[in-house]
Amino acid sequence: MDEMVRSPRAVEAVVTPPGDKSISHRAALLNSIADGNAHVSNFCVGDDRASMLRCLRGLGARIRKHANCDISGSDECFEIRGVGLDGLSEPGTALNAGNSGTTMRLVTGLLAAQPFFSVITGDRSLRNRPMKRIATPLTSMGARISGRREGSLAPLAVNGGNLHGIDYEMPVASAQLKSSILIAGLYAKGQTTVRQPALSRDHTERMMGAMGADVVTEGLNVTVRPSRLKSINVNVPCDISGASFWMVAGCCHPNARVRVKSVGINPSRAGVLEVLQSMGANVRLENVVEEGGEPSADIVAESSDLVGVELSGDIIPRIIDEIPVLALAACFARGTTVIRDASELRVKESDRISATVDGLRRLGANIEETDDGMIIKGGAKLRGAVCDGFGDHRIAMTMGIAGLVADGETTVIGAEAASVSYPEFWDTLRGIQDG
Ligand code: S3P
């Protein structure tokens, strides 16, 4: 599917992005193995949600959608009846995580702890993403995991059970890796400690703690001891990664005011706000509230005079999904933006360094690829062109926003990739474009 986008005279919008994908995935997985009943409202939407629910149901989790929920007070809600730590059952066929790295890595942590055999696979993109990073620690906890290329690529076959705790120095600041180990750690004998090189999103440890698990965070280290979980109701805040597209549209369009509603602003996720503010953006928070251990707020973004920044080190894991759209913002900034230490982008749903550089360069950006990031000289006028989504939701959506702020007409090929995390994205964008 191709999408054609033009820049409107004004961008005036109030947008409610989907529920946060990371929090929804954890709410589904952890409540599935908890004791009790949970209601999860504002659950994320899209193909990645289907992937996570399919894998959990394949293991015997009891998850059903229902309308007009009295308990959560929402129109649509997922009820999860926990089966307890030991209530999952051997899947009769391979589990399919689709395009979702979070599903594959978190569910594999769960499989590593189960006393049965299972296989997990995914789509072509996911089957080429690195899995050794989870296989190595889970194997040292006692699971037997094999896969293509000596266990580094899916499909992964897992013989789980009888785990023991480990003390693990993580080679990458990845929340998926951390979560995979912590989930396995719930079942392991003794304590499991993960040591992070930098802070990555902390939804897993927050939620486990809220569910009564024995989990302690000390600086960058997280320790979990074998624990049962108590089901909790979760009202998921809206996804800051989905929100970031509209924030950047608001900042870069010369005549814009955008309000993004009820966005999760957990500090381990909100790097995009900090970066935009450090670029001089006109962004502010309103209606800040805290619910279920996760803060949220409305984010208001208006036309801004941006300046270039250097992005490297500890901020990178906290903006990892927003770097493509921040690169677009950098095209509108005075001066140069340098992004370093971001080689993880090369192993996402696509190689997001080369995909971002390819797309923005087609529109006339002065942007150069480096091994672990990119260099953007702001100020070159962006003009509509034909660009590719590279089968990656975040790239397709970044190029859609580029179309909203570039002169002339932009065509995004493979726009349907947005359905992975944000099926309504193009409808919202068309609404903004048509005023
Ligand atoms: C996610 C963690 C990040 C992020 C992904 C979602 C999560 O990946 O890119 O979209 O929910 O844990 P890494 O932890 O591998 O960096």
Q: What descriptors fit this protein?
A:
435 residues, alpha/beta, UDP-n-acetylglucosamine1-carboxyvinyl-transferase, Chain, four-stranded mixed sheet, 23 strands, 30% helix, globular, binds shikimate-3-phosphate
Any overview of this molecule?
With 435 residues, this protein is an alpha/beta fold. The protein has 2 domains: 2-18 and 237-433, Alpha-beta prism (UDP-n-acetylglucosamine1-carboxyvinyl-transferase, Chain), CATH 3.65.10.10; 21-222, UDP-n-acetylglucosamine1-carboxyvinyl-transferase, Chain, CATH 3.65.10.10. 30% of the residues lie in helices and 27% in strands. The chain contains 13 helices and 23 strands. Strands 2-15-17-16 form a 4-stranded mixed beta sheet. A 4-stranded mixed beta sheet has the order 4-5-3-14, covered by helices on one side. The longest helix is centred in the middle third of the chain and has 13 residues, at 240-252. The radius of gyration is 21 Å and the shape is globular. The mean pLDDT is 97. Shikimate-3-phosphate is lined by residues 22, 102, 174-176, 179, 200-201, 320-321, 344.
Q: What is the number of beta strands?
A: 23
What name does the CATH topology of the largest domain carry?
Answer: UDP-n-acetylglucosamine1-carboxyvinyl-transferase, Chain
**What spatial form do the alpha-carbon principal axes imply?**
globular
CATH superfamily of the largest domain: Enolpyruvate transferase domain
Radius of gyration from the alpha-carbon trace, in angstroms: 21 Å
- This entry's quaternary arrangement is single chain
By CATH, the architecture of the largest domain is named Alpha-beta prism
Fraction of residues in H or I helices: 25-40%
**Would you state the CATH class of the largest domain?**
Alpha Beta
Largest sheet at a glance?
Answer: 4 strands, mixed
Distance between the termini: 23 Å
Q: What's the pLDDT, averaged over the residues?
A: 97
Strand order of the main beta sheet, please? 2-15-17-16
Strand content: 25-35%
SS class: alpha/beta
Query: Any low-confidence stretches, pLDDT <50, length ≥5?
Result: none
Q: How many domains would you count in the coordinates?
A: 2
SS summary, helix count: 13
Bound molecules: shikimate-3-phosphate
